């Protein structure tokens, strides 16, 4: 049975978001800031304006899928995750 690698709980959200976004856009200008509350985590993603459409997707489908994945990871930590995309 293959072993899975686990990230530290405090770094998992930012690293996962950065990994996903790096696969979508063609630049290294990705900045992620994190605000934590008792029951929530807010991730602020800053990307260049020219790359925003790739992360948001048609009718917001891509960003919704990213939020869904982050929400699943957050649920495992009993946290609600909010993602804000700024360009």
UniProtKB/TrEMBL annotation:
Subcellular location: Cytoplasm
UniProt keyword terms in alphabetical order: Cell shape, Cell wall biogenesis/degradation, Chaperone, Cytoplasm, RNA-binding
InterPro entries from the UniProt entry: KH_dom_type_1_sf (IPR036612), KH_sf_prok-type (IPR009019), KhpA (IPR020627)
Species the sequence originates in: Herpetosiphon aurantiacus (strain ATCC 23779 / DSM 785 / 114-95)
Domain of life from the UniProt record: Bacteria
Record-stated family: Belongs to the KhpA RNA-binding protein family.
Described purpose of this protein according to its UniProt entry: A probable RNA chaperone. Forms a complex with KhpB which binds to cellular RNA and controls its expression. Plays a role in peptidoglycan (PG) homeostasis and cell length regulation.
Subunit composition and interactions: Forms a complex with KhpB.
Protein name: RNA-binding protein KhpA
Broad class of the protein's primary localization: cytoplasm
Transmembrane segments: none
Organism placement in taxonomy: Bacteria, Bacillati, Chloroflexota, Chloroflexia, Herpetosiphonales
Cited Pfam families: KH_KhpA-B
BP-aspect Gene Ontology terms: cell wall organization; peptidoglycan biosynthetic process; regulation of cell shape
Single GO molecular function: RNA binding
GO cellular component: cytoplasm
